[in-house]
Amino acid sequence: MCRGIKILRILILLLFLLLNGCVLQDAISSFIKPATPAISVSAVSTTLTKPKSFVSSKKTVTLIAKPAPLEAGEEDLWRYISKGNTLKARNHRDIYWHIKWFKDNPDYLTRVTKRAGPYLYLVAQEVEKAGLPIELALLPIIESAYYPFSYSHGTASGLWQFIPDTGKLYGLKKNYWVDERRSVIRSTRAAVLYLKNLHTLFKGDWLLAIASYNSGPGRVQRAVKKNKAKGRKADFWNISLPAETRGYVPRLLAVVELIKNPKKYGQTITPITSKPQLESVFIYSQLDLSLISEWTGLSLDEIYTFNPDLNRWATPDTTRYELLLPIQKVAEFKKARASYPKQNQLRYKRYTIKSGDSLNRLAKKFNSSVAYIKSINNIKGSHIKLGQKIIIPIPRKAKDYYSLSKEQRTAQRFSSKKHGKKMTHIVAKGESLWVISKRYDVPVDSMIKWNHLSNAKKGLQIGQKLDIWQVQKIKASKLKNLTKTGVNVKRTISYRIRSGDSLSVIAHKFGVRVSQLRKWNKLPTNKPLKIGRKLKIIKPIVK
Predict the structure, then answer these.
(1) DSSP calls for 208-241
(2) pLDDT per position as a tens digit, 94-124
């Protein structure tokens, strides 16, 4: 009987070791080669699901925990990336106009490659670790010019320009304290996983995967299906896609070519050392950013630049936050934090509820959030009582000290030179920004800036007051005289190209023809629009 029990124990032990060995092997394999992402693929399916490990794992991998393969060999990280040989154009004609644009603007890549300095190692390491073409580390040049605070009119944000829905699908949190679409670490991991999923969805075709990253997998799938139904080639170069996407992929391929051969095209690439510049430090309770500045000697601008996901004046109220600091600052930060009293790392104010107070009003008054006030005071619902005592976290410094907080960035983004006469418009039933802009003949974008409409998609409220700055027009009597003499009076408008724009969309918006836009701006027929470029538009006042 005892012998049987011993044998049984041995069998159980062997089974346990076998199972754990499998788990260990799986864990090792996940770092050596990318796991096959779970994807639902159909003719026009757009479902991209995340591997369970991406959804449920709470462990954050420190990016510099061990030397990466990319450290060996090349001292300049750009030269290392230039050795990638996966993404190519068919021929030089495919990228000619993009190459020409960079040649005509030689300072652009110099500035962008300098801006990428703190981030490129982290991005390249994540790309390479996942087994993706190393050239994809150049994609943020196209998406955001490696500017982590980049924000498009379509609400895309961060180095990889995630829109809210896609960011949420890939586990990027967005709340009062942080927007992880701007996190260098988390957004890169999400982008890498998204690109892997797209690569699998399009059966190993990287150009279709990249096109889908720009315009969405559904649109690309439909274009592929349409060509296949007609017996035509269904690769990127032969399917019908929006103008922006038709230019997006060749522009990336042009950047790949420029990074490989900068001297050939008159480009100066700012060297970046092939070593990590930032290190992860984990914080387990909220910390005022002013203290981080005091402990490290870093400016607030630098702290926000290394951690662009931070929205406010403190790290988020999570159980663990991954803070990025320059490697040479980590030791002094840890030493200072260890010696600083924990109860003073965040300042609180004791407050007694007064008549007229509400959670919304208190959150606005003390630069906090309703959810956070409720959480730390264990408040259920939204009701607070007169005389009730609560605590509210408050910043140690004045609001404008936190230079790149969400409020300060919004104020900068909405700051706009105002010319002409100020008018106040009260929104009536059925009115939209477009309707009002036509009435006063002012751009919608200007109205958004003048009135700080950070989420214009929600629509306007009846009775809402809007500031309008209207340039004084020619008097009616003068117009009448000009009309009699047959003079064609025109006004030149400057319009900046936004994500999703095409010449036909812009022409419709301003009531002009596509051919006129091309003529005024000397636009060739086969050159894609560049987001951010200013277009000259001439609108007639008297016809």
Answers:
(1) HHHHHHHH-HHHHHHHHHHHHHTT---STTTS--
(2) 999 999 999 988 889 999 999 999 999 999 9
- Give the C-alpha distances (Å, rounded to integers) separating 423 from 338, 350, 428, 443: 56, 43, 15, 15
Measure the CA–CA gap between 479 and 476, rounded to whole angstroms: 5
Question: For all residues of the chain together, what is the average pLDDT?
Answer: 77
CATH 3.10.350.10 fits 476-540, yes or no: yes
If one counts every other C-beta atom within 10 angstroms of the C-beta of residue 222, the result is 16
**Please, where are the H alpha helices in 261-316?**
289-296, 300-306
Rounded to an integer, what distance in angstroms lies between the CA atom of residue 334 and that of residue 336? 6
Topology match between the domains 68-265 and 476-540: no
Q: What is the pLDDT of residues 48-72, one digit of tens each?
A: 444 333 333 333 333 333 334 455 5
* Statement: residue 461 has pLDDT above 50: yes
Query: Which candidate, 448, 442, 511, places its Cα nearest to that of 151?
Result: 448
CATH of domain 277-398: 3.10.350.10
Query: How many other CB atoms are there within 10 angstroms of residue 526's CB atom?
Result: 10
Handedness of CA 137, 142, 147, 148 (dihedral sign): negative
Known catalytic residues are 143
Query: pTM value?
Result: 0.65
CATH superfamily of 420-470: LysM domain (3.10.350.10)
Cα angle 108-113-116, degrees, rounded to a multiple of 5: 130
Compute CA 496 distance to the chain's CA centroid, rounded to the nearest angstrom.
Answer: 19
* Tokens 């924000």 -> residue: 151
The amino acid present at 433, given as its one-letter code, is L
Distance, in Å, from the CA atom of 197 to the CA atom of 39, rounded to the nearest integer, reads 7
pLDDT tens-digit readout, 326-356: 999 999 999 999 988 887 777 878 889 898 8
